[in-house]
Amino acid sequence: MSAPPRPSNRPQRGQGQWALGYREPLNPNERMKKDADGLTVRQRILDVYAHTGFDGIDPSDLRGRMRWMGLYTQRAQGIPGGKTAVLEPEELEDSYFMMRVRTDGGALSSAQLRTIGGISTDFGRDVADVTDRQNIQYHWIRIEDVPEIWRRLEAVGLTTTEACGDTPRGMLNCPLAGVLADEVLDATDVMAQTVATYLNDPAFSNLPRKWKTSMSGCVDHCTEPELDDISFVGVVNEAGEAGYDLWVGGGLSTNPKFGQRIGVFVRPDQVTDVWAAATSIFRDYGYRRQRNHARMKFLMADWGPERFRQVLQDEYLHEALPDGPAPAPAKHDQRDHVGVAKQKDGTNAVGFALRTGRITGTVLTRIADLADEHGAGRIRTTTQQKMVVLDVPDERVEDLVAALAEHDLLVRPSAFRRGTMACTGLEFCKLAIVETKQHAQDLYAELEKRLPDFDEPIGINVNGCPNSCARFQTADIGLKGSMVRDDSGEMVEGFQVHLGGHLGTEATFGRKIRGHKVTKAETADYCERLLRGYLERREPGERFAAYVERAEEAWLL
How many whole angstroms separate alpha carbon 335 and alpha carbon 482? Predict the structure, then answer.
């Protein structure tokens, strides 16, 4: 391997890197973590806060360490988006929590899903969200109820530990891992080993910021590995051996970056050690001085893949990894596993669309029952806010499709229903500027009426703020929440438009059209106008993202 390039001109000292001796607290978050590890808050919740109630929670635990246990305060009701950047956190927050259940790889048994559903019904006002990272989130959680919720989750092998915070978050895997005949390899075991070894480990409970992992052998790249801090992507080397290509440094938010290939071949038995070594690099060399500069993508932008590989091998693994091939392009454009897919054992995986991830605990419980009645009690969540029931015999498929449809869970949804995602939004999120969940549902319903014959895949991602929890930069139509001036001059909820984002071999972030913005009330009209133009002007076989790339700006306004 050639000598690594010199570091960029960015100063490599003084950015808060532990490995260079900069361990002093550099911002309030780092001071909070130095005062007490985030994992220690669990015992205080059990012993103190569950008894004192919300008002007895120490502020540094409330707005800091409780995230290590999957708990965020939720937004108080009735505060408009224009106040988001004006009010202090304590003025924005309610005395209730969002709670995230960690479901690595989206893998759930019917008993686990029934427990999740029951908790939502009993403690969360029957509200739940399936996220685009395969987790399930509650709202309206009282601190007094947390011990009982944990007891129920842990009884079926689930946890909220390190679902949030400056930790290794829940890991992504293909929801059909182990059942599809054409997968490169099944990452289930290597992910389980990594989680079992390092979840709740103080060695990685104080990272510079969040650490998102994907491990998958899916031929569709359904975990969207381009966007994670670290991704293990299934490949086959020249010797015919299945393993993983290593990608590092992906992430979105206000400074989006695609992950970079490190160029190594990782055998399955090496994955856990390589993951731990890469996570250690982030812990030791990550930039801690400024919170908005503390993600792995910034270190990778300065280092590049060659230097990262050298440090990984020389300082942490103490062995060289062989060069490896790039993975094959995604086999299908759509990565959501919606529809009926044949499993290698002859049964079927039945994937279905929710309403932009929003669901009730009652319906989750019903899905668990249907998975028992029509399959073998195995359910999966996807990275597109969808769900899948596995192991359905041919003769039971249509019965299951009909039973799901009774709850508005669609195995054969419209292109708009299938392609629309939304983050939590103003309803519960303290960072949001606009409401998203209901608006996204209204939007796809309106487009179904206006363009009933539209059948091209189309991604419409609705975000409440610039943080891109619903990945607006990589959607065909990305809508980023913003306050917008309407025709009368009033500031109202609206969106900045990003068009033509896509992943894959020629991945690109969406195009901003002269800062084009639409009010919330104008969204359906704008999308209809945009899509009619696409239908009129597209070339044979041309997908929307390709159309946007060549479109005149006037076509996109």
Answer: 28
